[in-house]
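Appendix B. Chain record.
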Amino acid sequence: MTQDEIMQLAKDAGLRIDVRGTYFFVGFGELSDLLDAAITNEREACAKTLESISNAPDMQSYANAIRARGEA
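Structure tokens predicted for this chain:
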């Protein structure tokens, strides 16, 4: 995940980011939202990578298992 993607997730989670984009203050709820979004994005990226490796049924089941971790 790039710094720009993280900054966009932070903005989407409602974090107030200063003009320089270097420091921000965050409450627990906002931090939790940011972490959930980052984890979800990375989980989906991993699942898509597995799917792109091969069309083998095992790869799809592994990708589905990764996605299911977000539902547990």
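Further analysis of this model is presented in Appendix C.
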